[in-house]
Amino acid sequence: MSDTEIRDDRAAGRLEAVAGEGGVVGRIEYFVLESPARAIVPVHTVVEPAHEGKGIAGSLARELYATAAREGTAVAPLCPYVVKWAERHPDQAPAASPELLRAAKAWLAAYPGRF
């Protein structure tokens, strides 16, 4: 992972892992929920097959939570990978409230074509 940079494309709703040659090798797709509280909601994690097993997905999840912490924002994970990562790293991934998770699921249901 040393030659991989992680960048946040907030406008597109993607946290991207970019390899040394400039190609995106992994990403977490997310949206930002504004109510009942502001939260980053990861929905989908993808790592290109040629880059699997290199820790990219974990690095993306770690950076997602670090970004949220820097912004004072919660994370309401709906992505199964990020949910499991958060369970394994509770010191880095504070749990979202049930209310926030319900609101995130409702938003996603209201915009079914978004992801």
Task: Please provide a written account of the structure.
The chain has a five-stranded mixed beta sheet. It has 115 residues and is α+β, with helices and mostly antiparallel strands. 33% of the residues lie in helices and 27% in strands. It is built from three helices and five strands; from the N terminus they run ββββαβαα.
Biggest beta-sheet profile? 5 strands, mixed
Percent range of helical residues: 25-40%
Give the beta-strand count: 5
Assign an overall shape.
globular
Q: Which structural class do you get from the secondary structure elements? A: alpha+beta
Query: Which band does the percent of strand residues land in?
Result: 25-35%
Radius of gyration: 14 Å
Number of helices: 3
Read across the widest sheet, the strand sequence of neighbours is: 1-2-3-4-5
Please write the string of helix (H) and strand (E) elements: EEEEHEHH
C-alpha termini separation = 26 Å
Unreliable stretches (pLDDT < 50, length at least 5) are none
Mean of residue pLDDT? Answer: 94
